[in-house]
């Protein structure tokens, strides 16, 4: 890289120097052109004047007769006019041809400067004789260059020609030119002169003058030679002159060259600096990349270690929670079971109250334990969700009905408003959706003292492909401060966390709701105004099931039941009742805020009028005879409400919150009051007590749990055999046959998994019919259930064991049905 940069810098510098040199030489060329122009003019004029002088001397009045010579004074005046003529010689007659150095009366020789005697006269040379002969023949001026001699010769014949063709009376003029005088004409111009004489004939080309200095350099960078050629053409010969000047570039353009050198060098240094900087940057970048890679590797190792530690902590936490769950559920199993048995026994009023407190406290403890386990599973990503079709209306109605009595006891109105556009059957996890809705509704009942609570279900406005359902749980309770809106979804978060707060709770319900909603592909948020109320929003992805029905299509709709009028001052409840009437098949349906204008009912011929029992007044007596009134009553005060209906001669009623199934089959005040159906425990107990005796193998390492099961089965047609560990259970199962085996899973020694597998292996080896085995465990994880079923269990019961669950399981075993998880 450095070599390339240096080459580029050198090329740039040389280019700048060349440009600066050309710029400097341009001025020298202009000066040289002016100087050479004047010198060429003077030299051409001097040679032309010499030629004219020689011809003039050979013509009258200078050459009158052969004996006559020019006047010396007149000849000197001509020489003075031409300073570069060193001497002029004129000969006539026989002396005209060179024969020696002696002068004769018929010859005249004038020198500009006194000369030594030895130097006077022209040498009698062959060249000079030839020049005279050629001049006579041609009548032209002939140059002669020989040694130090440089002369111009002109000859003319003044009389006739002799018999041999030679001139009898020649007139010869010779002008000897001075080389130093010619050089002086250059003056102080610093020019070099090269003169070549060219003529036809034997003389050819001769170098007359060369004033160039020796060792002249013409191609150097700092010097230059400027040349100008000139040809002086005269009759018979011509001169080729070359004017030149050696130019010192530094003298003419030293500043430009220095500037070019500085700029080029600076640019080169700048390029080198840039390359060096770039190299340093690249090196720094490489070093930084290496350092970053090292840090990334170190952080990756740290993150991996942290991840492993977090996973280990999560596993430890999960194992701890599973162990704690098992250890808590095991004694809680005995506590709740004994409380249930104690409640069935004859007790005094105060004793029964004590047992009820005991029962509620144990159920609250179980609910807290379940919440902690659910939150732990959700945070660890171990919470699995089903994707199965279910009836959305049924789930919502059951969730609202669960809080109907609690809401009625506080004087609250609670209802469901399901938009008709929502599909009845959707795909999702119904139990987890019910858990979210019950958590939100439970909070609404807890924090609301007056007003209403509503669960509204509709399609999400911006739902992608219409798969998201918008759930809203609204209340008119205490509300939440704006700075606590996000805080309420944190684990163990309480808006009022003071020790003396009015409302209890662990603060896990909303955290679980958020985790579940996010796992179901949605989001949850809260809108609230303190002192006004709150609305929890949940967007959940619930795509329609393959067989899609809207909320009202399941029951036929289409107006088959005729028009309907709803009287309700509460706008939200009125709209919900109107949609419920439409879903039940009424059309059209109108809503009035009060009984003030009942004439509309007669005007439109309504078939049914729906209102709350608390709104009935004397206006009912004025209703048209054909209009049937359906009253909504409070289940908490059912007796008083029915008496009020009879007073107003209202026959049909529904218990709030009304469901679609109840709406299509209203109750009559003339029928006997509905009583509670026999409890499942009582039904199953009667069936088991009346059946034939059956054998039960109870396997549990806890004597308390075995005692509890025996107490649950007291009076039942079951013969119970106990085993305290898995090995004993296998021995008893191999030796005898049982109608049902209750197998505890976690036991010392051989656990329930191994005992079940051993029993199934023995049955297969002996080709015996498989006995029914029901797992009994305090573990609630799905993987534990699947492991038990894989080991050979037919069903799975979770501790704390309820009497109803146990009797249902025994009833299923007696009837040969396939059990499931209870």
Give a nutshell description of this structure.
With about 800 residues, the chain is of the alpha/beta class.
Describe this structure in words.
The protein is an alpha/beta fold and 822 residues long. The chain has 4 domains: 2-190, Beta-Lactamase; 389-541, 2-Layer Sandwich (Heat Shock Protein 90); 554-668, Rossmann fold; 680-815, 3-Layer(aba) Sandwich (Rossmann fold), CATH 3.40.50.2300. Helix content is 44%, strand content 21%. The protein has 20 helices and 27 strands. The chain has a 6-stranded mixed beta sheet, with helices on both faces. Strands 2-1-5-4-3 form a 5-stranded antiparallel beta sheet, with helices on both faces. A 5-stranded mixed beta sheet has the order 11-13-14-16-15. Helix 5 packs across helix 16, helix 15 (680-690) crosses helix 20 and helix 17 runs parallel beside helix 18 (752-766).
């Amino acid at each position: 890289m450095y070599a390339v940069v240096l080459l580029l810098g050198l090329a740039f510098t040389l280019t700048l120097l060349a440009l600066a040199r050309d710029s400097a030489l341009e001025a020298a060329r202009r000066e040289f052109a002016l100087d050479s122009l004047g010198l060429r003019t003077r030299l051409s004029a001097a040679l032309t004047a010499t030629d004219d002088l020689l011809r003039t001397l050979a013509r009258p009045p200078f050459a009158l007769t052969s004996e006559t010579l020019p006047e010396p004074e007149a000849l000197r005046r001509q020489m003075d006019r031409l300073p570069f003529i060193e001497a002029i010689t004129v000969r006539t007659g026989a002396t005209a041809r060179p024969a020696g150095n002696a002068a004769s009366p018929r010859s005249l020789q004038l020198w500009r400067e006194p000369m030594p005697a030895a130097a006077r006269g022209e040498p009698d040379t062959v060249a000079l004789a030839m020049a005279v002969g050629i001049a006579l023949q041609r009548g032209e001026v002939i140059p002669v260059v020989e040694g130090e001699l440089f002369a111009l010769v002109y000859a003319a014949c003044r009389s006739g020609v002799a018999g041999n063709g030679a001139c009898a009376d020649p007139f010869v003029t010779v002008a000897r030119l001075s080389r130093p005088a010619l050089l002086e004409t250059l003056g102080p111009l610093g020019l070099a002169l090269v003169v070549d004489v060219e003529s036809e004939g034997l003389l050819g080309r001769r170098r007359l003058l060369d004033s160039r200095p020796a060792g002249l350099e013409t191609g150097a960078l700092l010097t230059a030679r400027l040349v100008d050629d000139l040809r002086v053409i005269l009759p018979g010969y011509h001169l080729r002159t070359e004017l030149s000047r050696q130019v010192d570039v530094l003298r003419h353009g030293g500043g430009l060259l220095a500037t070019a050198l500085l700029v080029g060098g600076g640019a080169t240094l700048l390029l080198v600096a840039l390359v060096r900087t770039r190299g340093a940057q690249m090196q720094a970048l490489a070093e930084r990349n290496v350092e970053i890679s090292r840090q990334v590797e170190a952080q990756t190792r740290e993150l991996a270690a942290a991840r492993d530690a977090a996973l280990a902590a999560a596993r430890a936490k999960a194992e701890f929670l599973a162990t704690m769950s098992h250890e808590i559920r095991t004694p809680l199993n005995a506590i709740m079971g004994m409380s249930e048995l104690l409640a069935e026994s004859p007790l005094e009023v105060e004793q029964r109250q004590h047992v009820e407190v005991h029962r509620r406290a144990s159920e609250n403890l179980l609910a807290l334990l379940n919440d902690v386990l659910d939150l732990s599973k959700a945070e660890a990503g171990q919470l699995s969700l089903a994707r199965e079709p279910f009836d959305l209306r049924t789930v919502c109605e059951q969730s609202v009905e669960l809080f109907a009595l609690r809401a009625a006891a506080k004087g609250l109105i609670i209802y469901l408003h399901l938009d008709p556009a929502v599909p009845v059957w959707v795909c999702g996890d119904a139990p987890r959706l019910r858990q979210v809705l019950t958590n939100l509704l439970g909070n609404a009942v807890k924090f609301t003292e007056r007003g209403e609570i509503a669960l509204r279900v509709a399609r999400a406005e911006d739902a992608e492909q219409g798969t998201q359902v918008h759930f809203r749980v609204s209340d008119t309770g205490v509300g939440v401060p704006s700075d606590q809106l996000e805080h309420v979804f944190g684990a163990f978060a309480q808006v009022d966390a003071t020790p003396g707060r009015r409302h209890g709770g662990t603060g896990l319900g909303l955290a679980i709701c958020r985790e579940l909603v996010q796992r179901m592909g949605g989001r949850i948020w809260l809108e609230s105004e303190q002192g006004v109320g709150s609305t929890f929003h949940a967007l959940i992805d619930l795509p329609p099931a393959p067989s899609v029905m809207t909320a009202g299509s399941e029951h036929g709709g289409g107006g088959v039941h005729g028009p309907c009028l709803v009287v309700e001052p509460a706008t939200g409840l009125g709209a919900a009742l109107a949609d419920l009437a439409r879903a039940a098949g009424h059309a059209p349906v109108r809503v009035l805020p009060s009984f003030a204008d009942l004439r509309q009912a007669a005007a439109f011929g309504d078939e049914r009028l729906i209102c709350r029992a608390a709104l009935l007044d004397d206006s009912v007596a004025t209703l048209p005879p054909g209009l049937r009134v359906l009253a909504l009553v409070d289940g908490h005060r059912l007796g008083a409400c029915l008496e009020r209906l009879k007073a107003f001669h209202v026959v049909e009623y529904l218990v709030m919150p009304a469901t679609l199934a109840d709406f299509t089959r209203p109750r009559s005040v003339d029928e006997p009051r509905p009583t509670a159906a026999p409890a499942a425990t009582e039904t199953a107990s009667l069936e088991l007590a009346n059946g034939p005796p059956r054998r039960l193998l109870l396997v549990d390492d806890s004597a308390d749990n075995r005692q509890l099961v025996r107490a649950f089965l007291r009076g039942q047609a079951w013969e119970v055999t106990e085993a305290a560990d898995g090995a004993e259970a296998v021995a008893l199962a191999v030796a005898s046959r049982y109608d049902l085996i209750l197998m505890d899973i976690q036991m010392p020694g051989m656990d329930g998994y191994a005992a079940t597998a051993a029993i199934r292996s023995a049955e297969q080896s002996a080709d015996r019919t498989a006995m029914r085995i029901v797992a009994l465990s305090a573990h609630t994880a799905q993987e534990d259930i699947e492991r038990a079923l894989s080991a050979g269990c037919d069903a799975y019961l979770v501790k704390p064991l309820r009497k109803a669950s146990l009797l249902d399981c025994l009833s299923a075993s007696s009837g040969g049905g396939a059990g499931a998880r209870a």
